[in-house]
Automatic annotation (TrEMBL):
Organism: Gossypium raimondii (Peruvian cotton)
Single GO MF annotation: carbohydrate binding
Biological process per Gene Ontology, one example term: carbohydrate metabolic process
One GO cellular component term noted in the UniProt record for this chain: cytoplasm
Protein name as it appears in the record: Glucose-6-phosphate 1-epimerase
Length: 242
């Protein structure tokens, strides 16, 4: 049973339509909300209670439909390059709280965190025959940083390898897309979905948005930032290891 002090940081509640939800809080006032359905972060608020993630007003919270907005988990497929449904099935599955998570050295200063786990099911075997174990830790740092850490393990009994793609499909909240720029992706190759997935190399110092943009970068930057000048909001996105 959780102690009173632990309940300050982690609270298990019922969310929309009775779906299980976990609320993470830091003492400075930052918070995040995570649904077990989809293992999905749906809210991240700063100490002024300002929402930093976008959640569509059309989000249904009705399985098997994915939750529209927040940070969907795309696995074992990002996009629709294979025979699976777009962005895979992890965002449509009910995850469990991980009762025995491995140590996570990158979150040692955080007390507001939850460990979730998703495993292969017999129902999935009809569309994807591989066995796996997908672990996810969602944590709030002492300064309100939102940290998602995932680990995917092959549990095929025959030891057969498999390939997959994975993404945190994050929806940031912005008020005016023309006031947003993304920096840190220069020299990286990408596929342009609006030009039949033709391959290009990013040349500019920043990506801005004057019309529809749909790019799939083939490698992940160690760090990139998204600046919303209209709200004076700066997001830094870092890549690190478990």
């Amino acid at each position: 049973m959780a102690s009173a002090s632990e309940n300050i940081y982690v609270e298990h509640v019922k969310g929309v339509n009775g779906l299980d939800k976990v609320i993470l809080r830091e003492i400075r006032g930052w918070s995040a909300e995570v649904y077990l359905y989809g293992g999905q972060v749906t809210s991240w608020k700063n100490e002024r209670r300002e929402e930093l993630l976008f959640l569509s007003s059309k989000a249904l919270f009705q399985p098997p439909k994915p939750i529209r907005g927040g940070i969907p988990i795309c696995f074992p497929q990002f996009g629709n390059l294979d025979s699976l449904e777009q962005h895979g099935f992890a965002r449509n599955r009910l995850w469990s709280v991980d009762p025995d998570p491995p140590p996570c050295s990158s979150h040692t200063n955080s007390r507001a965190f939850i460990d979730l786990i998703l495993r292969h099911s017999e129902e999935e075997a009809k569309i994807w025959s591989h066995r796996y174990e997908l672990r996810l830790r969602v944590a709030l740092g002492p300064a309100g940083d939102l940290m998602l850490t995932s680990r995917i393990r092959n549990t095929n009994t025959d030891g057969k390898s498999f390939t997959f793609t994975f993404a945190y499909h994050t929806y940031f909240f912005v008020t005016d897309i023309s006031e947003v720029r993304v920096e840190g992706l220069e020299t990286l190759d990408y596929l342009d979905n609006l030009q039949n997935r033709e391959r290009f190399t990013e040349q500019g110092d920043a990506i801005t948005f004057e019309s529809e943009v749909s790019l799939k970068f083939l490698k992940q930057a160690y760090v990139f930032c998204l600046f919303n000048s209209n709200l004076y909001t700066l997001f830094y996105v870092y890549r690190s290891c478990w």
